[in-house]
Design goal:
single chain, 4 helices, 88 residues, 2 strands, mainly alpha, globular, Recoverin, domain 1, two-stranded antiparallel sheet
Length: 88
């Protein structure tokens, strides 16, 4: 019975973590729509400054893991998950 309860608990925790990941992804999508003023699917440093005026260029560069000069949805989501970008 303990093994079953342990397995059930693991499945419940995994489902909760998956749901939390989906929630973070949808927050990132909503943020992208609000921040991406030119609608190209990327957020530049200038676009991010409009909503986060205290964002340092070094912090933006750390979020821009592919060094493209703009953040894509995955980079925004990672920033939210890491607590560098606000969830809302």
């Amino acid at each position: 019975m303990t093994a079953q309860n342990g397995t059930r608990t693991t499945h419940i925790l995994a489902a909760g973590m998956f749901a939390a990941g989906l929630a973070a992804a949808s927050v990132a999508s909503a943020q992208m729509a609000d921040i991406d003023t030119d609608g190209d699917g990327l957020v530049t440093y200038e676009e991010l400054l409009a909503v986060l005026p205290d964002m340092a260029e070094e912090d933006f560069a750390a979020l821009d893991v592919d060094a493209s000069g703009a953040l894509d949805e995955a980079e925004i989501s990672s920033g939210v998950d890491a607590g560098v970008l606000p969830a809302e």
